[in-house]
Amino acid sequence: MKLLFALFAGLVFGVGIAVSGMMDPAKVLNFFDLAGTWDPSLAFVMGGALMVTYTGYRLVWRRPAPLFADRFQVPTTTTIDRRLIGGAALFGIGWGIAGFCPGAAIPALGTGRWEVVLFLAAVAVGFGLRRILDARLNPQTTG
Asked: Domain residues of the chain, as ranges?
């Protein structure tokens, strides 16, 4: 049942990305082009997502636990460190260069565009490199 609801949530997200046009990297890149062909639609999509998220969290936090888990999985730290800043910077740079973020690129696989496959391959390589670097820099935290 848990996987069925995860699939449903992913499908709703993918449909939302498709309907909003955010699978098109040109639309996303135009949002960042303030001096040229600026397109504010991404701001409206994000604003809508924030409203839904705010409402959802207000409802969910009233529950003692999630429907399909024993407890909520929330971060245990609020520290802003080099890893967080570096990861956020890399995410933003990649998004600005490619016009894709991983969340929009996965539903965009259905478009059959080679750029999407290349982008997701680069994301996978980046995840792998991070694991290797983390294991070398912090051997006591790997299991």
From this structure: 2-141
